[in-house]
Write a structure and sequence with these properties.
alpha/beta; Rossmann fold; six-stranded parallel β-sheet; 34 helices
C-alpha cells in the first residue's frame, strides 16, 4: 500500500479535500495530513490515516516561539514538523508527498532530501497522476538510497524535469540554500556528469538565484564555476559565468571570475569567427570588452586589475583570434602628407561632447595665420552620433563584415578628411576609432589619449595603423597604454608623444593672506579616483597636532554612475558630516572662479589613486599653495608616475608622510611662502600655455 503525505500551510477547502482523499483511497493509498490548519475545519470521517496539526496547541515554549519568530512561515512550518514525533513518523513512512499550497513547498523539498527520498508533487492533481503512474509501472521505491549529496547528483534530471516550477523555485530558493547542506547538495547536483547543457544551465541559474538571495555570493560563484566545467556549449558556459559576474558588478565590486567569463566570451567569439558567423562573433567580443573594461572594475573603485598587471590583464585578448582580428592593421594606401608650404595648414579638431581641454588649443590656432581651423563635435551630428554608438556593428566591420557600417562612416567623415591636412581627435574613444574605420587618404590623424581612455574598451577596437601620432598627457599613461593596448606596439604602431595639457596658469598667481597657510585644498572631488577620504585621513592627523588646519573641497559633489561610486559617496558623506558641522571641512562646491577659490588655500593636495596630470594640483601650485602629492597607487613603484611628473619632494606615500610635509612647510609663514613661491615658478615654467603651446606647434608643423 502507498502512503501519501499531504502537507498544508493553511486550512484547505473541505470540498476539494474530500474529493481528492476519496480518489486516493480508491487507488489503495493511505492518506496522512500534517501541517498548519484549523482542526475544527478538517472532517475526520474522510478516512484519514493520520491528522496532525503542528505545532500542537499550547505545546510551543517561549524559547521555541522566540526562535521561530525570526523565521519565515515556510521555515517555521518545517521547524515544527521535524520536531513533532507523530509528524516525523508519518514523514519517514511516506512514499508520495503532496505540498498542497505555497507555504508547504519548502517542507516538501526538505523531505525530498531524506534518505528515503519520497516522490514530491505540488497539488492534488499532480499527486493523483504520480500515484496512477506508480501503480501502472509497479515501481517500488527502495527503503534506503544514498544521502542528499548523491541523491541530488543522480536525480538532477528527474528533479528539474518533473518538479513543478513553483516547487523547483522553492527547492532552489534562499530558504533551502541558506543551509550548508542544501547549498552543497545543489552544487554537487549541477556539476553532475551526463546532464544535458540546457538542463544544467536551467538548474544552475535557479541555484545561483537562490544562493544570491540567501547571501551566499561566494557559493554562487563556486556553483557557477563547477557547472561551467561540465558545459560543452561555449555560449551557455559564457552566459552562466556572466550570470554571477554581472551581479557582482551591479553590486559595485570586481567579480572574482572576471578573467574566466571574459575568456569564455573570447572562446565563443573565436568559435563563431572560425565558423564565419561574424555577427555572433562581434556580439561575444562586445560582451567580453564590456565586462573587462567596465567602469566598476577600473574607474569607480580605488584599485584596478589593469593597473596592477596590464600585461596579464590583457593576455586573454592577445590570445584570442577574433580579438586579434579586430585590431589587425589594415594600414593606409598613401602616407600622410607633409604640412603644406604654400598655404595655411588645414586643421580639424574633433571630439564628442567633451571639449574641456581644447579651449586654449582652439583659440591659439584660430588666431594663427598659418592655420585654417575647423571644429567638429560629433555629438551634434545625428549620423555620426549613431555610428559612434554602434559598437557591435563597429566590431563586426573590423572582423570583415557589416560593409554598410563602413559605407556610413565614409559618407559622414570623407568630406572632413578630404578637406583637412591634419585631424586632431581629442579623447581616444568612439570618435577616434571611427576615424580609423576607413582609409584616411593622405590626411594625418593625431589622437590624444588622456588617462580615462586607457581603462576603456575603445583603444582595443580601433586600427592604430591608420593613426600617425598618439599624444599622451604623461609618461606613466604612455607606459600603461603601450603595455596593454595591442595596436600601440609593432611595426605598424603610430608615433607617440608626451605633451602636457594646455593650461592658462598666469591668472592663478595670487597674493595669499597669512592665515591661509593652515588651509588645505582639494580641487575636484567628483570621481572616486580623487579619493577624498585620503585627504580626510591627512586632515585628521594634522588636527591632532593643531586644530587650525582646515580642508577646503572645491568642486561639485561626487557623481554616482554605479553602485561602487554610490558606496564610496555614502562613506564620504558620512565622514564629512561631523567635519563640516565642526568647521574642519569647508565645502566650496562648484565655482567658475577657481583662481579666486584658491586664494583661500595654502596647501594644495593631490590624493588621487590615478591621474593623467592633475590639473587642479597644477593650478593650486601656480597659485602659490604648497603641493602635497600622494604617490598615485595605480602607478606607484613603476618607472614613471607622480614622482616623475612632479618634483620628487612633492611626493608622499602615506597620510602620515603627507601630514609631516604639511607641518614642516607650514611651521612658519616664511617657510610656507618660500615653498609656495618655488611651486609657482615650477608650474609657470613647466605647464603654462606659453610653454606647452610650443610642443603643440612642433607636433603639428615639424615633420
Amino acid at each position: 500500500m502507498t502512503d501519501v503525505l499531504v502537507i498544508v500551510g493553511s486550512t484547505p477547502k473541505a470540498a476539494v479535500v474530500a474529493a481528492a482523499v476519496d480518489k486516493f483511497r480508491q487507488l489503495g493509498a493511505r492518506v496522512h495530513l500534517v501541517g498548519n490548519f484549523k482542526t475544527a475545519d478538517i472532517d475526520a470521517d474522510l478516512g484519514w490515516a493520520t491528522v496532525r496539526k503542528v505545532p500542537a496547541s499550547g505545546t510551543a515554549s517561549k524559547h521555541v516561539r522566540r526562535k521561530t519568530d525570526a523565521m519565515r512561515f515556510s521555515e517555521r512550518l518545517w521547524f515544527h514538523l521535524e520536531r513533532d514525533r507523530t509528524a516525523c513518523a508519518v514523514v519517514r513512512g511516506a512514499d508520495l508527498v503532496v505540498a498542497l499550497d505555497h507555504r508547504a513547498v519548502y517542507s516538501a523539498w526538505r523531505i525530498s532530501q531524506s534518505r528515503r527520498q519520497p516522490e514530491v508533487c505540488f497539488g492534488f492533481a499532480a499527486g493523483l497522476r504520480a500515484l496512477e503512474k506508480r501503480l501502472e509501472t509497479g515501481a517500488l521505491r527502495p527503503e534506503h538510497v544514498p544521502g542528499p549529496l548523491t541523491v541530488a547528483t543522480d536525480g538532477l534530471r528527474r528533479r528539474v524535469r518533473t518538479l513543478p516550477a513553483d516547487l523547483l523555485r522553492n527547492a532552489t530558493g534562499p530558504l533551502a540554500l541558506r543551509s550548508r547542506v542544501g547549498a552543497r547538495a545543489w552544487r554537487a547536483a549541477v556539476s553532475a556528469p551526463g546532464v544535458p547543457d540546457s538542463l544544467r544551465m536551467m538548474a544552475t541559474e535557479q541555484v545561483i538565484e537562490g544562493m544570491w538571495l540567501a547571501g551566499r555570493q561566494s557559493g554562487a560563484l563556486v556553483t557557477a564555476r563547477a557547472a561551467a566545467e561540465k558545459l560543452a556549449d561555449p555560449a551557455i558556459k559564457a552566459r552562466l559565468l556572466d550570470n554571477v559576474a554581472s551581479r557582482v558588478i551591479r553590486n559595485g565590486r570586481t567579480p572574482a571570475n572576471l578573467t574566466e567569463v571574459v575568456t569564455a566570451y573570447l572562446d565563443l567569439a573565436d568559435q563563431r569567427h572560425a565558423a564565419g558567423d561574424l555577427t555572433a562573433a562581434a556580439d561575444a567580443l562586445l560582451h567580453a570588452t564590456k565586462l573587462a573594461f567596465h567602469r566598476v572594475v577600473h574607474i569607480d573603485q580605488v584599485s584596478s586589475p589593469l593597473a596592477a598587471d596590464p600585461v596579464g590583464f590583457i593576455e586573454p585578448f592577445r590570445k584570442s583570434t577574433a580579438a586579434s582580428a579586430v585590431v589587425r592593421p589594415k594600414g593606409r594606401r598613401t602616407p600622410a602628407a607633409a604640412p603644406p608650404g604654400d598655404r595655411p595648414l588645414r586643421l580639424l579638431i574633433a571630439t564628442t561632447s567633451n571639449a574641456n581641454f581644447l579651449h586654449l588649443i582652439r583659440s591659439h590656432y584660430e588666431a594663427n595665420p598659418d592655420v585654417e581651423l575647423r571644429f567638429l563635435d560629433m555629438a551634434e551630428h545625428p549620423g555620426m552620433k549613431r555610428l559612434n554608438g554602434a559598437a557591435q556593428r563597429h566590431i563586426e566591420n573590423r572582423l570583415g563584415g557589416e560593409p554598410l557600417f563602413a559605407h556610413g562612416v565614409e559618407q559622414q567623415l570623407r568630406p572632413y578628411l578630404d578637406w583637412a591636412d591634419t585631424v586632431f581627435v581629442d579623447w581616444c574613444v568612439a570618435p577616434a576609432a571611427l576615424f580609423t574605420v576607413i582609409d584616411p587618404g593622405d590626411t594625418r590623424i593625431v589622437v590624444r589619449l588622456h588617462s580615462y581612455e586607457a581603462f576603456t574598451r575603445w583603444p582595443h577596437m580601433m586600427d592604430f595603423s591608420r593613426v600617425d601620432d598618439v599624444v599622451f598627457v604623461a609618461d606613466h599613461i604612455r607606459d600603461l597604454s603601450v603595455a596593454s593596448i595591442p595596436g600601440l606596439g609593432g611595426e605598424h604602431a603610430p608615433r607617440t608623444h608626451v605633451i602636457d595639457n594646455g593650461m592658462d596658469l598666469a591668472d592663478f598667481r595670487r597674493t595669499k593672506d597669512p592665515s591661509t597657510r593652515f588651509n588645505l585644498g582639494l580641487v575636484g572631488i567628483g570621481q572616486v579616483a580623487k579619493d577624498p577620504l585620503w585627504a580626510l585621513a591627512v586632515l585628521k592627523r594634522l588636527r591632532e597636532r593643531d586644530e587650525r588646519y582646515r580642508l577646503f573641497l572645491i568642486g561639485g559633489d561626487m557623481g554616482r554612475p554605479s553602485n561602487a561610486a554610490k558606496a564610496y559617496a555614502r562613506k564620504l558623506e558620512k565622514a564629512l558630516k561631523p567635519l563640516v558641522a565642526s568647521g574642519a571641512v569647508v565645502r566650496v562646491g562648484s565655482t567658475d572662479d577657481v583662481p579666486g577659490a584658491l586664494e583661500e588655500v595654502g596647501v594644495i593636495l593631490s590624493t588621487s589613486v590615478r591621474e593623467g596630470c592633475h590639473v587642479g594640483l597644477m593650478e593650486g601650485a601656480a597659485s602659490g599653495a604648497v603641493p602635497v602629492v600622494r604617490d598615485w597607487p595605480f602607478f606607484a613603484g613603476r618607472e614613471n608616475g607622480a614622482g616623475t611628473l612632479y618634483p620628487a619632494e612633492w611626493i608622499v606615500g602615506t597620510p602620515e608622510a603627507a601630514a609631516e610635509r604639511v607641518l614642516t612647510l607650514t611651521a612658519s609663514e616664511e617657510s610656507w611662502r618660500n615653498a609656495g613661491k618655488l611651486a609657482t615658478e615650477h608650474a609657470l615654467t613647466t605647464w603654462d600655455w606659453p610653454v606647452v603651446r610650443l610642443d603643440f606647434d612642433r607636433l603639428l608643423f615639424d615633420r
